[in-house]
Amino acid sequence: MRRILKRGAAATALALSFIGGNEGLKTEAYLDIVGVPTVCFGETRGVEIGDSYTPAECRAMFADRLAGFEAGLDRLIAGPVEALIPARSYVGILDWAYNVGLGAAARSTLIRKLNAGDLRGACDELPRWRFAGGKGVRGLLIRRNKARQLCHEGLDGVPAEVPFRWGGA
């Protein structure tokens, strides 16, 4: 497997599996729950109804977009903080950013908590992002709870009563 994420092959494999599994593969363009033309693994950029791709084209498009979302997410997270987020936690947060978009992520309490060094609090923000078109969506809640669980798994070994702080801060 070619490495996509700068965090290495294991993080790449986890991200492709987790995020790709959450998005699902659809090779023919369709309108998503809020009416946005979507194809492959949740791709919306430049998509028009009638577009179609092979599974291989979809995988390549997904890998490129995922790397772009990693770079965008890393720009939102304070420099020293980004490098210290455990891989499993990062993939849970990347899944959310990929699904909601970097613009929404930039304005979020989740990113503010990350940048304040509160990774547990950031993980706990994920289930709040369960709405589409102003309505609660059961599938989004399920997805966010899975992302929250993955995010917290990255913190195994860090005592729950001690806030996660970066670089001993």
From TrEMBL:
It is an enzyme of class 3 (hydrolase). The keyword NADP does not apply. Keywords: Antimicrobial, Bacteriolytic enzyme, Glycosidase, Hydrolase. InterPro entries: Bacteriophage_GH24, Endolysin_T4_type, Glyco_hydro_24, Lysozyme-like_dom_sf, Lysozyme_dom_sf. It holds the Pfam family Phage_lysozyme. Signal peptide: none annotated. Its EC number is 3.2.1.17. It comes from the Bacteria. CDD domains: endolysin_R21-like (cd16900). Belongs to the glycosyl hydrolase 24 family. This is Lysozyme. It comes from Rhodovulum sulfidophilum. The lineage of its organism: Bacteria, Pseudomonadati, Pseudomonadota, Alphaproteobacteria, Rhodobacterales.
